[in-house]
């Protein structure tokens, strides 16, 4: 019965330590997700342009000179 106060204070400090750890880890998770999102948004225009070019080239390699609706125009092929 001598160490009841010490055990209670120790348990409270341990709980506070765990709560602070959880808050800090959640803050780090939000920061990492925010950084990943900003990187994806920053590269989205470049990726969109590459995808558009890939689609255009697929139409050109298949023998059609222009993709629809431009393929109704007369072409040299």
TrEMBL record:
<keyword id="KW-0472">Membrane</keyword>
<dbReference type="GO" id="GO:0016020">
    <property type="term" value="C:membrane"/>
</dbReference>
<keyword id="KW-0407">Ion channel</keyword>
<feature type="transmembrane region" description="Helical">
    <location>
        <begin position="12"/>
        <end position="33"/>
    </location>
</feature>
<dbReference type="InterPro" id="IPR002153">
    <property type="entry name" value="TRPC_channel"/>
</dbReference>
<dbReference type="Pfam" id="PF00520">
    <property type="entry name" value="Ion_trans"/>
</dbReference>
<keyword id="KW-1133">Transmembrane helix</keyword>
<feature type="domain" description="Ion transport">
    <location>
        <begin position="7"/>
        <end position="40"/>
    </location>
</feature>
<dbReference type="GO" id="GO:0005262">
    <property type="term" value="F:calcium channel activity"/>
</dbReference>
<dbReference type="InterPro" id="IPR005821">
    <property type="entry name" value="Ion_trans_dom"/>
</dbReference>
<keyword id="KW-0812">Transmembrane</keyword>
<protein>
    <recommendedName>
        <fullName>Ion transport domain-containing protein</fullName>
    </recommendedName>
</protein>
<keyword id="KW-0813">Transport</keyword>
<keyword id="KW-0406">Ion transport</keyword>
